[in-house]
Amino acid sequence: MPGDAPALELRGITKRFGSLVANDAIDFELRRGEIHALLGENGAGKSTLMNVLYGLHQPDGGEIMLGGEPVRIDAPRRAIALGIGMVHQHFMLVPVMTVAENLVLGTEPRQPSGLLDFKTAAARTRELSEQYGLAVRAEAKVEDLGVGAQQRVEILRALFRGAKVLVLDEPTAVLTAQEAQDLFRVLRALTEDGTSIVFISHKLNEVLDIADRVTVLRRGKKIDTVPTEGATERSLATLMVGRDVLLQVDKPEHTPGEPVLELRDLRVIDDRGLPAVRGVNLQVRAGEIVGLAGVDANGQSELIEAITGLRTPESGAVVVDGRDVTGRGPREMIDAGVGHIAEDRHRRGLVLEFDLAENIGLHEYRRPGVSRWGWLSPKTLADRARGLLREYDVRGGEVDTLASSLSGGNQQKCVVAREISANPKVLIAAQPTRGLDVGAIEFVHRRLVEERDKGRAILLVSLELEEIRSLSDRALVIYEGEIVADLDPSASEEDFGVAMTGGGRGQVAA
Amino acid sequence: MSAEPDDARPVTVAGRLSTYLRGGGIITPLITVLFAFFIGGLVVLATGGNPFETYKAIFDGTGFNWFFPWISEEDRIIAELNLQQTLLVTTPLILTGLAVAFAFRCGLFNIGGQGQYLVGTYLAVWAGSSFESMPALLHVVVTIIAACLGGAAWGAIAGLLKATAGAHEVISTIMLNWIAVWTGAFLFGLGGPLQSDTNTSVPVSNDIVEGAKLPVFWGDPLLQGLHVGLFIALAALLVFWVLLNRTRTGFEVRAVGFNPEAARAAGISVGRNYVLVMAVCGLFAGLAGSLDVLGWQFRVATNDIAISELGFLGIAVALLGRNTATGVLFSALFFGALVTGTSVRNLDPAVFEPALAVNLTGIIQGLVVLLVSADILVVYVWRLRSKLRRGAAPPAGVPV
Fold first, then answer.
1. What's the Cα-to-Cα distance from A199 to each of A4, A40, A233, A237, rounded to whole Å?
2. Considering only CB atoms, which chain B residues are within 8 Å of A82?
3. Hey, which bits of A124-258 come out as E strands?
4. How far apart are CA A123 and CA B225, in angstroms?
5. Per-domain residue ranges for chain B?
6. Which of residues 244 through 283 in chain B touch A, CB cutoff 8 A?
7. Chain B partners of A333 at a C-beta cutoff of 8 Å?
8. ipTM above 0.90, yes or no
9. A375 and B247 in contact by Cβ < 8 A?
10. Is-contact B299 B126, C-beta < 8 A?
């Protein structure tokens, strides 16, 4: 039963990364013995908030209170010492070691001789396993365990270190439905012992199932904290995607032409070997912006990678302008007319140590007009880039400025300039305005609409529902790798929200 | 979809190292050298020598005093010989330095310069001692090409392993080094397939044909004068620079070196560039081997293989020279001078114990390589300082 004094309190936590405010004066309160869900999309700030709690980041403002006392947490070691345990999405276990060895890692019991005392470690493991009802075998090697069992080991390890506050980051992402239910049973048992739990998720049905209260974050700010009793998926969805400042875009009517991009029953496997895209059919016609809405990690990245050649699909077809280009590499996709504004401009969009001329010429450098007999003159690249920098109003540098010196908005304009000037048949715009200021956002939006009017086919993949709704001619919603809705962009946020979070289907990742 | 914020590029140790390895700059190398000499001087002091006199003697040993117009005629003759020696060592160092620098620019760590160099010497001595009736110029060209191809193939193996199986080039190149060493011991050992036909009791190769020797342009050919290979090495510096900065391939190599993911997304084949870069590096090192064999060694003995370290010195050369063409040039000159200046032949035993002199070189070399990371050490210590300051007052009652 939730007690009265809060086990953990975050007051006014603010965290900035450069000009981006990841957490904006967030208040969060965790009562003793409760399960409190933290809801929001990636970019909402929940990961950052928990990293602050765990000592991986230092807050720029605000304070942390444990049991009523203010504390300074400057490293995970301190967090662990204070009784805060974190179970990450990506397990931090040593595969070749046994469960018992993993459990005592860092705090190994020693025999009087100084040698490691494995017997005690194994005994402690069994003790804890029984005490908390988490079935694990002390002598089993972690690499031989299934994912559900590995997660139990992670939880056990946190408890072994004396965690009274347990933070679980998207714990059901890798579990089957049955394993998720087992986990929930364990969590409820833990709270009866007085452990308080923070449960990070974006799956509404689970949150309603397991949590006592929910705090919703959006764009770094806390929106609200509500009890799950009386809440519905719809009400939570509204909080999550909510009403933002509407950036109105002038969008004249336009008649689309023939389909330029077709995906037929596309299936793509992700890095973990799990199906990320499960039979997607979609079409983007010339002169049309198709928006793909969805909560993060529902297969969008893998879908984009399949279209741009960065990942080979398991089955299905990718057809560009009538040509089947399924499974071809990035070079062939680019040559086939696929443009890609990457969602992570630092990782995939730009070479930050290159100057603007080189970045803008990242595809063109090998074209006959720019390089002959293998020779590539910087002057040619610079001349090409100069005009583009002007046209796209890139500020903060000249053709010989390093890309790293530019602001995010101007960096993105370079990427957009490069991709559009290559005259692609279909343009994949993934999160094109992420991290940009209002002026840059407006510019990119206007540019996308202009390209649409010129007859380009554009697939807009975004986590910002407002962006989808204001730019798209048609809006699709992806959930767990499938297209679950084809909505008119003017449909209500609630309708979108429900589709984006499973539409009441109540399924857990299988 | 990552939520990594725009301006959050943390100053991590690894991040700084990678920027360092691909950058230029002259201040840090200068400070590194000065600091290395300072500590070397302390070592000299500790062994009972006089650091200033020792360093002056080393300097005279390098032959750089040849440039001073005020030295005596007698000294000038010795200085001339010394300078030729220095440049003789600088020649292969430029190339083995390039062999490492080029790889670094692509984000690869080529430790295999030694093996690639050796393979070059084997092919050079084989081709150079065969084809006796070939006209001189043709013979030299054929031999050099053979050595380059051999070195390139040796490097390409590691590149291929990385591109296809993801094998880390540090491991594979080190292993290939050893394979090259023992192959040579076999080839030129007693009874080995390439062992001398005339000198059957010594594990040495045949001598190269007179016509295959590189012409000496300064000094007496009989006294190991300076051969034209120096110009070939200088030309290689130019090729390195042009390749990296004025060609399509160089563009791709640099892109892959800075950001393989973005390069891949832009349609550049990362694997193909790895193979190509390692091949080019092997070519440089193999070329070094051929210039040494054709320029002054004229034969390969198993003893030479065992004590050879030009390939490894190339790593220090590249690190100090910060992987640029000019940097490698001056760095190679520096190390060439160091090796020559401290050699037993050149150092006045009255000033410094000759047996220790060679080790002094080793110490300074090692210090230079160690201090290459000085840049990162400074960052680390600075962050440590601010951490200590912040953590000064831990909360009461909390076990640390």
1. 20, 11, 17, 17
2. 398
3. 165-169, 196-201, 213-218, 221-227
4. 76
5. 13-380
6. 245-251, 254-255, 258-259, 261-269
7. 267
8. no
9. yes
10. no
Nearest to B6 among A377, A378, A408 (CB): A408
Structure tokens at A107: 């705090």
Say yes or no for a CB contact (<8 Å) between A431 and B8.
Answer: no
What are the distances in angstroms from CA B300 to CA A45, A103, A156, A436, B112? 66, 58, 64, 64, 19
Q: Does residue A342 belong to the interface with chain B, where contact is any CB pair within 8 Å?
A: yes
Q: How many CA atoms lie within 13 A of B183 on its CB side?
A: 15
* Helical ranges in A361-401 per DSSP H: 378-391
Q: Domain B13-380 belongs to what architecture? A: Orthogonal Bundle (1.10)
Tell me the torsion sign for CA atoms A62, A68, A69, A74: negative
Q: What is the pLDDT along chain A (510 residues), one digit of tens a residue?
A: 444 578 899 999 999 887 778 888 999 999 999 999 998 765 678 888 988 999 988 999 999 999 888 999 989 889 999 999 999 877 788 989 999 989 888 778 888 887 888 888 889 889 888 887 788 888 889 888 887 788 888 888 888 888 899 999 888 876 777 778 888 988 998 898 889 999 998 777 888 999 999 999 887 889 899 999 988 877 887 787 665 444 456 677 778 889 999 999 999 998 888 899 999 999 999 999 999 998 878 899 999 999 999 999 999 999 999 999 999 999 999 999 999 999 888 889 999 999 999 999 999 898 887 888 889 989 989 998 999 999 998 887 888 888 988 877 888 999 999 999 999 999 999 989 887 767 778 889 999 999 999 999 999 999 888 889 889 999 999 999 999 999 988 888 778 888 887 764 433 333
Beta strand pairing call for A315-320 and A323-324: antiparallel
Mind telling me how many Å the CA of B229 is from chain A's nearest CA?
27
> Given CB atoms, is B47 within the 8 Å cutoff of chain A?
no
Listed as own residue / partner, the contacts of B15-21 with beta carbons closer than 8 Å and 24 or more positions apart are: B16/B375, B16/B376, B16/B379, B17/B373, B17/B376, B18/B107, B19/A353, B20/B322, B20/B372, B20/B375, B20/B376, B21/B104, B21/B319, B21/B322, B21/B323
Q: Are B16 and B28 in contact (CB under 8 A)?
A: no
DSSP E strand boundaries for A153-274: 165-169, 196-201, 213-218, 221-227, 259-269
Structural domains of chain A ordered from first start? 6-241 (3.40.50.300), 257-337+424-434+450-504 (3.40.50.300), 345-421 (no CATH)
Contacts of B106 in chain A (CB under 8 A): none
| Average per-residue pLDDT for chain B | 84
